[in-house]
Amino acid sequence: MEYLIGVDAATVRRWLEGSAAVLHEQRDYLTQLDAAIGDADHGTNMDRGFSSVVEKLAELDGSEPPGRILVTAGSTLVSTVGGASGPLWGTALRRAGRALGDEATFEGAALAAAFQAALDGVVELGAAQPGDKTMVDALEPAVRALKERLDAGAPTAEALASAREAADEGMQSTVPLQATKGRASYLGERSIGHQDPGATSTALILRALELAVATEQ
What we know:
The structure is a single chain. By secondary structure, the chain is mainly α. The chain has a single domain, classed as DhaL domain (Serine Threonine Protein Phosphatase 5, Tetratricopeptide repeat, Alpha Horseshoe), CATH 1.25.40.340. It contains nine helices and no strands.
């Protein structure tokens, strides 16, 4: 299995900082998506949450391994973000961080295992499956693509590019779906024709990870 040279705490910090930047940039867009089928607060919540994560990271002493950074980020999201996105992404990052443990660097298999743990946490908490028009529609195919490409021997940067592409496709696949979970499910058939905001923010976060790791290759 290919080892991820340089994928360490600095890479994880870049990922979280990149996620915060793109979520801030796309805050109004995410809010518009959520206004159609939700409470019109997804963009604001995700922006506030990841901004708080960046502030929290600045308080750390710099000795924390990647896993602990992700656990800290997840706990910060849970405590600062309302609605469903805080608990879901908080759980995802905490599960991923615990899967990574205290290693200073990690390789492809550990990255895939961390994302599988994140997905399992989201599914467990949200009781959502692919096709329910949620963030799972972007995250599940991304995790599957990541594992498949790594197992096939692809370099990590390429595997993450495939994961991001799968997330983008999953995000787009939510448009014709009828929501069966969350606030959007209250709309019934009226939720059809709208892109899910949670799947959209998930795709943005995965793109930020792709960029963070690509700079190390």
